[in-house]
Amino acid sequence: MKEIRIHGRGGQGAVLAARMLASAFVVEGKYVASFPMYGFERRGAPVVAFTRVDDKPIREKTQIYNPDCLVVIDPGLMKLPTLFNGLRPEAILILNSPQKLEMQPNTNLRIGGLINATKIAVAEIGRDIPNTCLLGAFAAASGWLKLESILSCLKDYLSGDILQRNLKSAERGYREVEVIKW
Fold first, then answer.
1. C-alpha atoms less than 13 angstroms from C-alpha of 101 in its C-beta half-sphere
2. Can you tell me the distance from the alpha carbon of 23 to that of 127, in angstroms, rounded to the nearest whole number?
3. Mean pLDDT in runs of 10 for the chain (182 residues)?
C-alpha cells in the first residue's frame, strides 16, 4: 500500500487534490481511500488530506502517520516541526516553491519534486490554486501514476473553460517539475 499525505491551507485545493488523485488511481484499476482532516474550516487554515492506494481493498480508515509521499502545497508549511514525522524510508516529497529545495539531513527522502506551481496556476488558471499542477508533478516525480490518468479524471470535478485551464496546469506540472534524487 502507498500512502500520500497532502499539506496545504484552506482554499488551495488540498482536499480536492486528494480526491482527484484517488480518482486517477481508480482509472488505473487500483483500490483507494481518500479523506481530509480539518482544523478550523476557513480559508488559510492548515488542511491535511490523505490518499491511500493499493492493489487490494483498503480497510484502514485512519489518518496517515507514515506516508510514502508528502505533497506540500504551501511552502510556508515546510517550517512545521512535525511535517516530516513518520516518513517511511525512501519517501517522496512534492513541493510547491519558487526557491531551490534545501533538505534537512536525516530525513528519509529519496526523491524530491520541486515546482513553482503557484506561478503556473496563476498563469494558466488565473488564480492561486496550484493543486492540479502539483498532481502533474506528482505523476512525473513518483512514477506511480500516468499523466493521462490524472487528466482523464479532472473532467469528473471540473468543466468548461476551467477544466481546460486545469488540464494545461497539470500538463505543465508534469513537464516542468524538477526531480531531485538523493
1. 21
2. 23
3. 95 94 98 83 81 96 94 93 90 93 69 95 96 98 97 97 98 96 81
Alpha-carbon distance 169 to 103, whole Å? 26
What cell does 181 get?
Answer: 534524487
DSSP string, 108-160: -EEEEEEE-HHHHHHHHTSSS--HHHHHHHHHHHH-SS-HHHHHHHHTTT--H
All three cell numbers of 131: 493543486
Give the whole-angstrom CA distance, residue 91 versus residue 109.
5
pTM passes above 0.90: yes
Q: Which domains does the chain have, with CATH numbers?
A: 2-181 (3.40.920.10)
- The x, y and z cell numbers of residue 145, run together, are 501514476
Q: How far apart are CA 51 and CA 25, in angstroms?
A: 10
